[in-house]
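Why do we care about 3D structure at all? Because function follows from shape, and shape follows, mostly, from sequence. That is the central idea of this module. The next example makes it concrete: a single protein chain, its amino acid sequence, and then its structure expressed as tokens.
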Amino acid sequence: MAKENSETAIWTEKYRPKEFEDVVGQEEIVLRVKAFVEAKNMPHLLFAGPAGTGKSTLAIIIAKKFFGNAWHDNFLELNASDERGIDVVRQKVKSFARTKALSTIPFKLIFLDESDALTKDAQHALRRTMEMYTETCRFVLSCNYSSKIIDPIQSRCAVFRFKPLVKADITKIIEKICERENLQINQRTVDELFSLSEGDCRRVINMLQASASVSKEITQELIYKIASAAKPQDVKLILETASTGNFSQAREMLLDTMLKQGLSGQDIIKEIQRQIWGLSIPDEKKVLLTEKTGEIEFRIVEGSDEFIQLEALLASFVAVGK
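And the structure:
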């Protein structure tokens, strides 16, 4: 497992953008950040948005552009989800922030990844550190949910909100990787990769690498095996069978799909939610089923038996169908 994680990290680093122009999908943010670098000055930054959209990559590019080959000496990267207590801020962050940069740039950079995992006490300590050492240090905070960052920190930062990558951006990344790695892929598989990735570039790279280790020809079948995701056509058939009132057959098909493909209840229910709107039933009933799907998903996350809950969901489809 450690070897697989290491190989994945190598692939991710290999295709990490090295220049501002290489970052896809966040053009407005890149232009504003690039202006800070060209001016050789910047405020504290807060990058907020979904995983795999370029937040960490952009922070590293900023450091490289500011400090050149000496960027390692003037850049501190910490993952706040690993070290989330107040001691980290008081010791590692404060000791790094209080020393001057070894560069023509008058400040160092501290990058706190997943900073929304910091405790409230740690965030208040960080706020004070940001105030005291502004002359010698700038902070770049990265988070998935900016609402979990206290207001005093947000008010001290220029906030940039990253968007999930759109299909054109994901396609561009896939084509670049396939060309350099001599992989064969068709448009339908690209479409499925985008659907499974949900705009997450890191997830696309991971799925491509895992698939490439099996075959140079990337197919839909291979992608679904690697991603441990439910096939849309299988889930749609299960739902259509339940909607016609045939509960027993739909139940058997569900169990067979889960066992053969090794899927969890959450894998199945995510695809069910996508397929509801393609069923031939009135929109009012689709709304009711969507609400029921959310309730069942919550129960599964809270620890209820997955198959029993999915059976209950199928029963709702049977009732709506009648």
